[in-house]
Amino acid sequence: MLFNHLKFATRIFLKDKFFSTLNILGLALGIAVSIILLLILQNDLTYDQHFANHSRIFRLGCHYEVTGVDEQIAYAARELGPVLREEFPEVQTVVPVKSMERTLVKYESKQNLKSFYEEDIIHTDSTYFRVFNHEFIAGNAKSCLSDHHNMVITESAARKYFGDEDPLGKSLFIDNDSWKVTAVIKDLPENTHLKFNMALSGLPDFREWSIGRRQPTSEKFWNPDIYMYLLVPENYNPQDFYKKWPARCAKYYKQTGDQLGGKYTPILERLTDIHLHSDLQDSEPHGNLAFLYAFTGIGTLIILLACINYMNLSTAKSMSRATEIVIKKIVGSGKGLLVLSFLSESIFLSFISLMIAILLVFLVLNATPFNQVIGTNLSPNFVHNPLLLMGSLGIALCIGFVSGLYPAFYLPSMPTVTALKGAFKNKRSSLVLRKILITAQFTISIFVVMCTLFMREQINFVRNKDLGFDKDNLLVLPILDTLAFNHVP
């Protein structure tokens, strides 16, 4: 029976190609918006969740309060690492990560010399790959950063410098130091806040100027310079950390804190909260939950417009299909079968629209500056993203069902005798409903345009704000910088 409904829907499509094309294009636009919206939601809501230990990883930031300065930042002093290992036994691993500035990287071979400026380089230690799992193409996760001047590079970096050569054992020069490639990993996914192409080993626990006679001097704790990630037990309560902090760590801040009349408060952030919920200042751009809600709302309205458009066109064609519907009734089709027939027709058109929508999505994401405008790098990879594939099919089914719902119940209600005489006219209530739907279309369209223009201004404002952020000026308070500069190692 379903096959017969689909066969009849195909005949209707071929019979009135112009009308069917209008419906398909309208639905295709709605589905394309839905797929892009699904990509945006998937990208932002699953940030950093590809790490197996994501629920157990926290980033340690701080809140500084000094005369004239009140800042919440995402950095910590590297010297705090050994203190946490000693004072907090529940902290299983401390991972220090320092993002390096734009750096010249060179590869010298017998054939040629390759050199590029790289911006995505991190300096860390052997604990990194114990906490953050990555897919290794070559090398060993446990030992790849165990020695000084070892480095791990991504697949794209390996191609960039070594081409088809085996990169393992070869060396790259960074700041005139030689770093040996010990492993190659898959490129990092787009939705992670800690992006890098190269990871260097041997980040020291102490800075030279901060070492005192027995322990690092107090002012170094007031000069944060790295990201610090903590691996804790499952279901760990950050309040336990805050309660223990004054008794175990306040002493390290006391001397300089008394001199400055300052206050230092640690801040623990879950790894998965950093992108959308962090209000700490750092050098990485964050997601915006308000924009996410706005994108979702605008996308939903555009989908609704596509559905309303299908309803209006279908009911407007009702008079030309009156004879067809009546004949079906005469030969024995009940209302249920007629409803099923019209729903099958709308769903059939919706799935045709899905194929066009996929082409539109590829065009928008690859041939327009859309990704640049919203600050992402979305890619519609249906093969390796089953959630996107199933979501797209589900969206097409839902849009087809919702769009065909009103025509499916309205068209079979035509009076048989009147339709046979050719005297059938749309009911007054139907005309009123169509006017309401058309008015709703114009209202929603104007609202979507206004929201889009407003969001464009907000995105430009946020982008300019992010570009103006200077982590060096934020990281070290001027008065603390003076203390560090005058310190004699």
Main beta sheet: strand number and arrangement? 13 strands, mixed
Name the helix and strand elements from N-terminus to C-terminus, one letter apiece.
Answer: HHEEHEEEEHEEHEEEEHEHHHHHHHHHH
Helix amount, in percent? Answer: 40-55%
Globular, elongated, flat, extended or rod-shaped: what is the shape? elongated
Subunit organisation of the chains: single chain
Alpha plus pi helix count: 16
| Percent strand | 15-25%
Low-confidence stretches: 467-489
Number of strand elements: 13
- Briefly note the structural class of the backbone: alpha+beta
Overall mean confidence score, pLDDT: 81
Which value, in Å, is the CA radius of gyration?
A: 31 Å
| Through-space gap between termini | 86 Å
List the helices and strands and how they pair.
Layout (H helix, E strand, L loop, with lengths): L1 H14 L1 H29 L11 E10 L2 E5 L6 H8 L5 E7 L3 E6 L4 E6 L2 E3 L4 H4 L4 E3 L11 E5 H8 L8 E4 L2 E9 L12 E3 L26 E5 L6 H23 L2 E8 L3 H4 L11 H28 L5 H9 L4 H33 L2 H5 L11 H25 L5 H5 L7 H40 L3 H5 L2 H9 L3
Parallel strand pairs: 6-11, 8-10
Antiparallel strand pairs: 1-2, 1-12, 1-13, 3-6, 3-12, 4-5, 4-9, 7-10, 8-11, 9-10
Helix pairs in contact: 1-2, 1-10, 2-8, 2-10, 2-12, 8-12, 8-14, 10-12
